[in-house]
């Protein structure tokens, strides 16, 4: 029995760092400037292969939001959250959008392999995801 992906993404993508379930594409990133208590977080237009938890209201730096936590369908680990509703007018653009906490997902360069013409790779920046 192989693992069943609900949705297969192609090309560069973000995936669950525990079970490699495909989650989102870099072109669906709306903003990389979000922060969560563990560090960087990205706002995505679309995330696949996640289940959502119960709705709750959370007070954030930008005001009150109704959010649901999102979990990987493959392994059940928490990945971030989805904005169900924003109560401040200028935050409405986040409604229906997803946050992935950066340290919980493997980036598009996570399985990068160097073209082996040059052994000096130390100057490159694999974290530019
Ligand atoms: Zn997973």
TrEMBL record:
<comment type="similarity">
    <text>Belongs to the yippee family.</text>
</comment>
<dbReference type="InterPro" id="IPR039058">
    <property type="entry name" value="Yippee_fam"/>
</dbReference>
<keyword id="KW-0862">Zinc</keyword>
<dbReference type="GO" id="GO:0046872">
    <property type="term" value="F:metal ion binding"/>
</dbReference>
<protein>
    <recommendedName>
        <fullName>Protein yippee-like</fullName>
    </recommendedName>
</protein>
<dbReference type="InterPro" id="IPR004910">
    <property type="entry name" value="Yippee/Mis18/Cereblon"/>
</dbReference>
<feature type="domain" description="Yippee">
    <location>
        <begin position="12"/>
        <end position="109"/>
    </location>
</feature>
<dbReference type="InterPro" id="IPR034751">
    <property type="entry name" value="Yippee"/>
</dbReference>
<dbReference type="Pfam" id="PF03226">
    <property type="entry name" value="Yippee-Mis18"/>
</dbReference>
<keyword id="KW-0479">Metal-binding</keyword>
């Amino acid at each position: 029995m192989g693992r069943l992906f609900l949705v297969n993404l192609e090309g560069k993508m973000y995936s669950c760092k525990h079970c490699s379930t495909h989650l989102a594409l870099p072109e669906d990133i709306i903003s990389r400037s979000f922060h969560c208590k563990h560090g960087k977080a990205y706002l995505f237009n679309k995330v696949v292969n996640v289940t959502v938890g119960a709705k709750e209201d959370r007070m954030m730096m930008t005001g009150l939001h109704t959010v649901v936590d999102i979990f990987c369908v493959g392994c059940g680990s928490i990945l971030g959250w989805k904005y169900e509703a924003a109560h401040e007018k200028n935050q409405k653009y986040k409604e229906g959008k997803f946050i992935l906490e950066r340290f919980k997902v493997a980036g598009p360069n996570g399985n990068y392999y160097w073209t082996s013409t040059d052994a000096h790779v130390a100057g490159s920046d694999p974290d530019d995801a």
